[in-house]
Design brief:
four-stranded antiparallel β-sheet, 3 domains, Nuclear Transport Factor 2, Chain: A
Length: 308
């Protein structure tokens, strides 16, 4: 046995140890290399043959992961293709000659007297002219089918809303009297999916309209207001925004505890890049600093320095 740092005696358990030996019938020569383990004892690392079982296990795991990802992508593509196919089928049905004739007849009664006229006409045809009654009923069936496809995720709500949003609301608002007063007494759940779809689209439109109107009001206010007044409006908004942020961050405070002592606003060429700094003094002597930026000053940082 020999040490790679000489034979003058052991110097450290961390010196490499080499063992030269001859074994086998042919006198094969080999050198074993030992390195210290965590406990200070040498460990043989000369026979570092690859562990093929572990390597194959790792490769198989990677293949499984790649296969799972590919399967998820394929499922997504298949689902999108199904959505497109369902929407295309609905569009083809919408433009069929018989359906166009039913829509024209439906609109004629609405133009003549609104939902009340349609209700009375459908009630009359139900017993006097069943063929034309069921032809008009195909319109309600169409929207009920679309709503059921949406319920079972055959199509996405955004697709239906973009394609038929206003149309769904118009037809439901004009036929709801007929459904509730003529059909529902005998079948309380008839066309319930159509009704839910119409109400959902209407609520979505109202929410979007409110947000759009608010944004347009703020934008027109900033654009049409003279520069001096605009500066004051932004300062006022920044001060109110800073108060709200402070009260949300420190619930123990009340509005009466806060006083604005200084504020500043930067007004770049692009309105959404406006930033503001507001400093508030608290009744306990501490000071709160709020830095706000981004469109509507929605992003912010806040800090509080306690009184000495």
């Amino acid at each position: 046995m020999s040490r790679n740092r000489g034979l003058s005696g052991p110097t450290s358990v961390y010196d490499d140890l080499r063992v030269s030996c001859t074994s086998g019938s042919r006198g094969e020569h080999s050198t074993l290399i030992f390195v210290p383990s965590a406990k200070g004892y040498p460990v043989d690392v000369s026979s570092a043959d690859p562990n093929w079982a572990e390597a194959l296990t790792g490769i198989a795991t990677l293949l499984l992961v790649f296969g799972a990802v590919a399967a998820l992508l394929q499922i997504g593509l298949t689902r999108r293709a199904g959505h497109a196919e369902a929407l295309t089928g609905a569009a083809i049905r919408w433009n069929e000659p018989e359906f166009q004739a039913a829509r024209a007849e439906f609109r004629k009664h609405i133009d003549a007297g609104g939902p009340e006229k349609l209700r009375d006409e459908m009630a009359r045809r139900r017993s006097a002219d069943p063929l034309s009654y069921y032809q008009l009923l195909t319109i309600l069936d169409y929207f009920e089918d679309v709503a059921i496809l949406l319920k079972h995720r055959a199509v996405r709500f955004r697709m239906v809303n973009d394609s038929l949003g206003g149309t769904v609301c118009w037809y439901w608002n004009n036929c709801h009297l007929f459904v509730h007063e003529v059909l529902r007494p005998n079948n309380p759940t008839q066309y319930q999916h159509f009704e839910r779809l119409g109400r959902k689209i209407e609520e979505k439109g109202k929410s979007l309209g409110k947000r759009t109107a608010t944004k347009l009001t703020r934008l027109s206010l900033l654009v049409t207001t003279p520069k001096a007044e605009k500066h004051q409006l932004i300062l006022l908004f920044a001060a109110k925004r800073a108060n709200v942020i402070t009260l949300e961050t420190y619930p123990e405070l009340t509005p009466s505890d806060l006083v604005v002592v200084s504020h500043s606003v930067s007004e770049p060429a692009i309105i959404k890049d406006t930033s503001a700094m507001v400093v508030l003094r608290v009744s306990d002597g501490s000071t709160v600093s709020v830095h706000m930026w981004d469109s509507g000053l929605r992003r912010y940082t806040i800090s509080r320095v306690l009184a000495a």
